[in-house]
C-alpha cells in the first residue's frame, strides 16, 4: 500500500487494474471535498440532446433538481460556460421531453446542469424515474472489478460497491453513489453520508467501464434521509435476502 494511503481506511484498489473502492492517495481535501473513485458505465441509456449543436450527451447523474452530462470532446466545455442557459431534449426510457437547463459547474469531462422552469410532465417522469422503488428494480450485478469486490449498477449513476472477505463473504466496506448522494461505510471508520460532484481529474478506461474521481463533501452526521433512500433502493433490488439484510443493517445509523 502506498504510504500516502490511510492504512485504517480499506478503501483501496484490490490490484493495479481494479475499479474497486479507492480513496485517492492522501485523501486530500479540496475545499472540504474528499476524492473518491467509482466505476461507471460509458454507454448511458439516459441522454441529453443539445439544441444548439444537435450533439447527444450521456447523462451520468440525474436527480429531481438537475443532472450531469459527459462531454464528447474536451473542447465541448467551451459551449457550457457557468451560468449559461441551454435548451435541449432529455431522453428517459422511451420518452423524449424538452427542457431548459442552467450550467452550474464544468470539469474537463462533465457538466453539471440545473433544471429551469420544468414542465410538469417532465417533473413527473423524473420523479418516477428517480423513485427508490424504480431504481431498485433496475439494479443489476456487473462483472467483478477485483478480488472480493462486488459491483451493482443501476440507472442515473446508481452504483453500489461492496468489498467482501473472500473466505467468509463478510462485507468489509461499501461505497454507494445515487442521486448525487454518496454513502461510505467501513468497519474502522463507520458510516458516513455526503453529496458528490464530478472532479476535474481524467477518468481511467477499462473497456466500456471507466473509473471516475468524485469530490465528496461529508455531512457532519449521517443523514437519515439519504440512508432511507439508499435502504429503499436495496430493499427493492433483486438481491438474496441475506445479502439485502446485511446491507440494510449497515445502512441503519
Describe the structure.
This protein is an alpha+beta fold and 253 residues long. The chain folds into two domains: 22-41 and 133-250, no CATH class; 47-131, Thrombin, subunit H (Beta Barrel). The chain contains four helices and 17 strands. Strands 1, 2, 3, 10, 11, 12, 13, 14, 15, 16 and 17 form an eleven-stranded antiparallel sheet that branches. A six-stranded antiparallel barrel has the order 4-5-6-9-8-7. It starts with 21 loop residues before the first strand and ends with a helix. The model is unreliable at 1-30 (pLDDT under 50).
Using brief descriptors, characterize the structure shown.
single chain, 253 residues, alpha+beta, Thrombin, subunit H, 4 helices, 15% helix, 42% strand, disordered N terminus
Total count of strands: 17
What is the helix tally?
4
Cα shape: globular
Order of helices and strands: EEEEEEEEEHHEEEEEEEEHH
The overall pLDDT, averaged over residues, is 80
Whole-Å distance between the termini?
30 Å
> Which spans have pLDDT < 50 for at least 5 consecutive residues?
1-30
Domain module count? 2
Task: Kindly provide the radius of gyration, computed on alpha-carbon positions and rounded to a whole number of angstroms.
Answer: 18 Å
Helix-strand category: alpha+beta
Helix proportion of residues, in percent?
Answer: 10-25%
Largest sheet: number of strands, sense, barrel closure:
11 strands, antiparallel
Tell me what portion of residues adopts beta-strand conformation. 35-45%
Amino acid at each position: 500500500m502506498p504510504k500516502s494511503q490511510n492504512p485504517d481506511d480499506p478503501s483501496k484498489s484490490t490490484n493495479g487494474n481494479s475499479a474497486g473502492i479507492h480513496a485517492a492517495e492522501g485523501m486530500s481535501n479540496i475545499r472540504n471535498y474528499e476524492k473518491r473513485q467509482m466505476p461507471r458505465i460509458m454507454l448511458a441509456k439516459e441522454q441529453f440532446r443539445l439544441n444548439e449543436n444537435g450533439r447527444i450527451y450521456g447523462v451520468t447523474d440525474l436527480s429531481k433538481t438537475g443532472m450531469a452530462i459527459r462531454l464528447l470532446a474536451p473542447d465541448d466545455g467551451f459551449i457550457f460556460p457557468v451560468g449559461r442557459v441551454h435548451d435541449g431534449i432529455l431522453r428517459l426510457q422511451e420518452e423524449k421531453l424538452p427542457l431548459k437547463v442552467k450550467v452550474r459547474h464544468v470539469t474537463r469531462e462533465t457538466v453539471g446542469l440545473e433544471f429551469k422552469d420544468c414542465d410538469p410532465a417532465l417533473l413527473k417522469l423524473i420523479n418516477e424515474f428517480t423513485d427508490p422503488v424504480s431504481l431498485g428494480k433496475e439494479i443489476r450485478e456487473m462483472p467483478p472489478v477485483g478480488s472480493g469486490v462486488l459491483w451493482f449498477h443501476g440507472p442515473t449513476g446508481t452504483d453500489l460497491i461492496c468489498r467482501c472477505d473472500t473466505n467468509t463473504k463478510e462485507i468489509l466496506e461499501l461505497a454507494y453513489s445515487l442521486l448525487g448522494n454518496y454513502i461510505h461505510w467501513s468497519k474502522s471508520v463507520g458510516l458516513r453520508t455526503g453529496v458528490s460532484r464530478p472532479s476535474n481529474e481524467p477518468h481511467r478506461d477499462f473497456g466500456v467501464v471507466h473509473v471516475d474521481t468524485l469530490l465528496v463533501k461529508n455531512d457532519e452526521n449521517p443523514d437519515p434521509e439519504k440512508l432511507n433512500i439508499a435502504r429503499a433502493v436495496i430493499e427493492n433490488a433483486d438481491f438474496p435476502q441475506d445479502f439485502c439484510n446485511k446491507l440494510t443493517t449497515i445502512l441503519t445509523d
